[in-house]
Amino acid sequence: MSERYDLVIVGMGSGGMVAAELAATLDLRVAVAERGRVGGDCLWTGCVPSKALLASGKVAHHMRTAGEHGITAVEPEVDRAAVWKRIRAVQHEIAATDDNPERFEATGIEIVYGEARLTGPNSVQVGDRELDTRYVLLCTGSRPVVPDIPGLEDAGFITSESLFELDDPPASFVNIGGGPIAVETVQGFTRLGIPTTLLQKGPRILPRDEPELVDVLVASLRAEGVDLRFEVVTERVAVENGRKVVYGTQGGEPARWEADELLVAVGRAPNVEGLALEELGVQTGRRGIEIDERCRTSVPSVYAAGDVAGRFLFTHSAAYEGVRAVRDMFYPGKGKLTALIPWCTFTDPELAHAGLTEAEARERHGDDIRVWRLGLEHSDRARADSAADGAVVVITNKKKIVGAHILAPAAGEMIHELCLAIDQGLDLGDLAGFVHVYPTVGTSIGQLAGEAVFEKAEKYRWLVRRTR
User: Fold this and answer.
1) Which one of 220, 236, 267 terminates a domain?
2) pLDDT in the model for residue 335
3) For a Cys staple, 304 with which of 237, 289, 340, 343, CB 3.0–4.6 Å?
4) Residue 308, CA distances (Å) to 14, 315, 392 in order
5) Is 399 found in the same domain as 368?
6) Distance CA 453, CA 449 (A)
């Protein structure tokens, strides 16, 4: 016998959890189908464990470079197994508190464990249960892509899904891929004394970010020993003398790289299999389920949010989309996806991004754009912290801010002010009117905005009242 719900959500990761909480506050009957653990990739294989890894790496780095601050430097003794044990402890603490299934169930959300498939526009089957519902929200996320490299499967490898399940990580890695996950992980490994070589197919890492800041980051990473290789074509993988070897070319020249283990981080693929989408007529593409600006699929009662919909593969984007989908389903009007989505790569220094890059702005707006830059060597706080490798870059079109990029120790915290400025159509003069706390790295945004105001003031100096 089927059961009737207002909303059935498939997947209780970042998007599903937030959407379910919102729906529960509206006094709706909500069920969530989850085939694994509540929390999804963010808690178990992504954001949380990777940031815990980076935190341990930063401690080791500070010990190693303490001489810059007048303190005797020491080479840290890293217990890799203990680091991984701490990572799991952080995960389980969150799982037992904020992401605890019992907390969600206490709000009236019913969690149904098992594989889910759509049996109609208003029905979801989970195991032997048939859930009838007004709406369906698909939040099934994504998984690591496995490249088709001869010998890779036979040699064996690790992805972000299995990395943090280890008890004690291998002593060295070769990493295939140069996106945010790979770059963060490789820096963390290097700082923890796990030599890692990153192989990137293209000419640079982080190709979606502002190139001039990426170049500064690359120099900073290499200065602390991170081994980055560009223009690499991986041809095959072999196991030789107990070591895993990647054969290929770098810049067209034959090359080989070997380590105890391989880490594959070349991208993500949407989890659309097993949902019976094709039978129902839900359209999918290369990036995942196709949705409109309201998160609706080609079947009006079925919505999708997060990685499976392929817009932006970020936790915060999934949560935003999940909320907008519920808004569209149950409130008057429409829950359109209008918000600007910023992001940050949590290297040290961090690289944050909002809006257009310089190249994108020139392509869209032509010669009307202007690029404003302020290096952190002009930040008193950054210099005091021995962290002046970085900059704030703001791109304007007809004075309005259309893009912002920050390379700084706390770029992920700083970018929100500039993201809001883009969203609200502000110019640098508006930001100059805010008083920024001194001394902070964020003061650099105020300094940059001040330059724009001072430039404008100079044009009107003829209006200044002078003594006679």
Assistant:
1) 267
2) 84
3) 289
4) 12, 12, 33
5) yes
6) 7
C-alpha 453, offset from chain centre:
34
Same domain, 285 and 434: no
> Does one domain contain both 229 and 295?
no
Q: Indicate which CATH number applies to the domain containing 412.
A: 3.30.390.30
**Res 457: pLDDT:** 67
For residue 344, tell me if it sits in a domain: no
- Rounded to an integer, what distance in angstroms lies between the CA atom of residue 85 and that of residue 312? 31
For residue 456 the two structure tokens come to 């404008």
CB atoms within 10 A of CB 438: 11
Q: How confident is the model at residue 212 (pLDDT cuts 50, 70, 90)?
A: very high
> CA dist 407 to 74, 185, 318, 393, 394, Å?
27, 18, 24, 9, 12
Which residue has 């330059």 as its token pair?
Answer: 451
Q: What pLDDT is attached to residue 467? A: 64
- pLDDT band for position 417 (50/70/90)? very high
3-state class (DSSP) for residue 391: strand
Beta bridge partner(s), residue 30: 7
Residue 210 in tokens: 């502002």
The verdict on residue 339 lying in a domain is no
Are 135 and 279 in the same domain? yes
Which tokens go with 318?
């999934």
Average pLDDT rounded to a whole number, residues 418-433: 96
Residues in the chain: 468
Of 115, 136, 105, give the one whose Cα is nearest residue 6. 136
Task: Confirm whether 72 is domain-assigned.
Answer: yes
- Does the pTM surpass 0.85? The reply is yes
Residue 174: per-residue pLDDT: 98
User: Could you read off the pLDDT of 151-206 as tens digits, one per residue?
Assistant: 999 999 999 999 999 999 999 999 999 999 999 999 999 999 999 999 999 999 99
Sign of CA dihedral 332, 338, 340, 346: positive
> Does 129 share its domain with 218?
no
- Do residues 14 and 131 both lie within one domain? yes
Domain that holds residue 439: 349-461
Omega prior to 349 cis, within 30 of 0: yes
439: cis peptide before it, omega within 30°?
Answer: yes
336 inside domain: no
CA–CA separation, 159 and 264 (whole Å): 5
Looking only at the bridges linking them, the beta strands covering 343-345 and 350-355 are antiparallel
Alpha helices in 366-426 (DSSP H): 380-384, 411-423
Contacts of residue 105, Cβ cutoff 8 Å, sequence gap at least 6 = 111
pLDDT digits (tens, 9 = 90+) for 291-350: 999 999 999 999 999 999 999 999 999 999 999 999 999 999 888 899 999 999 999 999
Same domain flag for 50 and 100: yes
Kindly report the average pLDDT of the chain as a whole number: 95
